[in-house]
Amino acid sequence: GGGGGGVGAGHSANFLGGHDDGINQFVTQHPSLSAIIATFLISLSSLVIMPLMPLVENPSTGKGILKILVSFAVGGLLGDVFLHLIPHALHHSCHEADFHVASARQLGLPLLAGMLVFFLADKLISGLTDKDHEHSHKVKVDSKRTAKTSKTRAAAYLNLFADSLHNFTDGLALGITFVQGSGITTAVAIFFHEVPHNLADFAILIENGFNAKQALLAQFCSSMTGVLGCCAGLVLPQQQWMFSFVAGGFIYVSTVSILPSLMEDRGAASTAYQVFAMCLGVYMMLLIAD
Question: I need a labelling partner for 134 at 20 to 30 A (CA). Which of 20, 67, 244, 251 fits?
């Protein structure tokens, strides 16, 4: 893990500006602590969303803003996959005597396995919530519905449990990538994925009878499972194929769980905004990966 630290540190230099040397040195010397700190900071993303809530709850602006944030998150996740995780896995395969066999074992198979495992996790989550979870990016912006029946409360708690599983897999990805020396890009990608995700979840909790304080506390507790996932990622025997596994999971999340919700709005203007936001997400990953 230590040898890869310099690689991941260098990747983030341009993006982090004047503080890059200190941050990179810390990440290289303390990858496990860095992973836990990053996971904890991402769990605080639920606090970042508060200023955006009035816009999201507004029927005229909410849906469009959420879709743009989601598009940006898709660009970030796919940018992390194709500009960082896969090239990193390929870099290690290049040193093998038989590149074709090595790339199949260290890139192809783990990538497919990642997609399959995330598919199974999504099926489990969908079964628990009795609906397509879609990472909670579909959101009803009618904030007036505050029925506090046990049924709606149960739906809210199931949604929180599903989020806990989702946060665990995010934490797992962070633990794996930080130990292999390239966690900063993955952390940024996950953070920008979590902002629209948390916005949607917050709206769902409010709709199901939670007040703002209860919803924030519930989301924060749910996000703490990310720290557990991170610790699991840190103690797993580190293998190069894990980059590809995480990449496969992110491809599934981006293309299967999130993108279909963006297909609902066929308007030319909204499509243009979504494509621009995706490109911006990819460009951000390009800046970090340089």
Answer: 244
Secondary structure (H, E, C), the chain? CHHHHHHHHHHCHHHHHHHHHHHHHHHHHCHHHHHHHHHHHHHCHHHHCHHHHHHHHCCCCHHHHHHHHHHHHHHHHHHHHHHHHHHHHHHHHCCCCCHHHHHHHHHHHHHHHHHHHHHHHHHHHHHHHCCCCHHHCCCCCCCCCCCCCHHHHHHHHHHHHHHHHHHHHHHHHHHHHHHCCCHHHHHHHHHHHHHHHHHHHHHHHHHCCCCHHHHHHHHHHHHCHHHHHHHHHHHCCCCCHHHHHHHHHHHHHHHHHHHHHHCCCCCHHHHHHHHHHHHHHHHHHHHHHC
Among 228, 188, 242, 179, which Cα is nearest to 41's?
A: 188
Q: pTM for this structure?
A: 0.65
Other CB atoms within 10 Å distance of the CB of residue 264: 10
Q: What is the rounded CA–CA span in Å between residue 113 and residue 252?
A: 11
Could you report the per-residue pLDDT of 167-222, keeping only the tens digit for each? 888 898 889 888 877 788 888 888 887 877 777 777 777 767 787 788 888 888 88
For residue 48, the tally of other CB atoms under 10 A from its CB is: 13
Quick: pLDDT tens for 228-262.
999 988 887 766 677 788 888 889 888 887 788 78
Q: What share of the chain in percent tops pLDDT 90? A: 8
Contacts of 101 (CB under 8 A, 6+ apart): none
Domain boundaries in the chain? Answer: 2-289
